[in-house]
Fold these 3 entries.
Entry 1:
Amino acid sequence: DAFFKFMEQDSYLSSHKGQYAESYAARPGLVHKLDLRFVQGYSFNAGKTKNTIQVSLDVLNIGNLINSNWGVNKNMAASNYGKILKYDGKDANNVPSFSTIKVSGEYPTETYSPYINNSQCWSLQIGVRYIFN
């Protein structure tokens, strides 16, 4: 029952029951990460030389700043990286048997889960650049 419940929750697997899975066919959705940059330059003369100081502010993965579910990659850790069945052996009639694995003591219920890592969070970067000619 756990195996078939897992199959139903995934759009690719539920529409390809009884078939071999194609290579790289079941994949998580695209992740859109947007960065935003503000730059302001200040020019001044030092003698006969023009100098410029640029101050920049970068917001990396700004979508994640707005909504914590945006801009986050997903991986298959929740489903043991796709290895959801294990071979248990054969019976007296030489019929193989399989069982559904457990992940952290529970049967897998989702194919993909958010990849929780600091690199997935939004970040702020401040920069100063000095330009002289």
Entry 2:
Amino acid sequence: MSERGYGQFCGFARALETLGDRWALMIVRDLLVGPKRFSDLHAGLPKIPTNVLTSRLKQLEAAGVVERRAMPRPTGGVAYDLTTRGRELDEAVIAIGRWGAKMLDAPRDGEIVTVDSLAMALRTTFRPEAAGDLRARYELHAGEIVLHAIVDGPQITVGRGPLEKPDLIIESSSALKELLAGAMTPRQALASGGMRITGTRKLFDRFAQVFRI
């Protein structure tokens, strides 16, 4: 039996042999947002030692979860990306994130929000059953982080950076978590000064309905 094995002929045990090590699923989470160079991964996961990041990437490559590929010009270089098998983890990562989001209260000392963690938070909190026929292009600013979410009925696309013509721009300094958790109404979030919007207020109300922990 492998030293990493659990001694059980079980799919869940096999999955943990690949993904159960510290940082492995965090790497998968960030790669679900898009391919990244080694330096990008380390910048997004600043507490991971470089030797551990190297080791986890090798393990995930060996398991067929991650692959290396050349980046197109002008960027160039080599990036890490999820394989088709790796992308099969998308629903599982979203489900775990939704489960964990209910445990969030105030940030602990030293905890940060990254563009990838916020992108996945939007995907995690998106409720397709609440979206109905909503068609909206949201742009979210949180400090220096800028990303966007395009809602097309029950489908969502989340990406880095601004949109050319967003339907609503949301600027958040402190109230986003409370809004997503339902602890604040859209009116309260705006009145608190923790959020500002540019665009139609109705789309902000729908944002609060569609994105919910």
Entry 3:
Amino acid sequence: MNKEAFKKSLQEGAVPEGLSELQAGLWHAANDNWQAAHEVAQAHEGERDFDHLHAYLHRAEGDEWNANYWYRRAGVKMPDQSLPDELDNLINLWLV
């Protein structure tokens, strides 16, 4: 799925078929369903990309301390860009 199709799918009521679990978590995050995205991230704790998603989610909720913890676990520095820009970068990164 490309970025344009992914963003269009956010208007649908369910995660599109064929997405990986990471992409599904990202879809939930982009669709403002923090809880569903968090459950996906937690189910894969210790996997770098999922920990990165976890970090983004805690940053989005305003929990900077927890976000920093997850960014460190993911081996990524907390970005100094806006949340929409970070989300866009994650979409670009994880949609192959």
